Amino acid sequence: MRLSHVNLVARDGEGLTAFYVAAFGMQVLRARRLVDGPVFFRGMGLARAFHSTWLGFPEGGPFLEIFDFDDPPWVTPQGPDAPGLRHLAFRVTDLAATRDRVLAAGGSAQGAVTNLGSEAAPVLAVYLRDPEGNLLELEQA
């Protein structure tokens, strides 16, 4: 078994897509398209259409799918201690440069860079948020 993809529901699907492309160098695998009809409704238990975009990571692996709705169910981002999907974690080679790209692309800081390892074997990590409030973790070992 392996992970296929992770899905985020966006307030602004096109804007969130642009953020992940700019911040992480992701590529559009499948352009934004309308997903509609009884087959999708039956499979998802959702009785309304939505848009879906697929983004690929530069090194491959699972993809990121972004949904957006013409009539969105507005929700407030949950705190870092709430149950459910908590964050997307990215292993990066240059934490400072990636953090700068995330902030320049419209993300925001959540915490400070922290060494989760040791002085001899540092593992740097920092939490940020994408433009829609989703929590992101950057890790550099």
Shape: elongated
Could you give the order of the helices and strands?
Answer: EHEHEEEHEEEE
Overall pLDDT: 89
**Span of the ends, CA to CA:** 26 Å
Compute the CA-based radius of gyration: 16 Å
Describe the biggest sheet? 5 strands, mixed
Strand content bin: 25-35%
Report low-confidence residues grouped into runs of 5 or more.
Answer: none
According to DSSP, the number of beta strands is 9
Class by alpha and beta content: alpha+beta
Helical stretch count? 3
Helix share bin: 10-25%
Describe the overall structure.
- It is a single chain.
- The chain is an alpha+beta fold and 141 residues long.
- The protein has helices at residues 13-24, 38-44, 95-104; strands spanning 5-10, 27-35, 50-56, 63-68, 88-91, 108-109, 114-115, 124-129, 135-140.
- Helix 1 (13-24) packs antiparallel against helix 3.
- The model has no long low-confidence stretch (mean pLDDT 89).
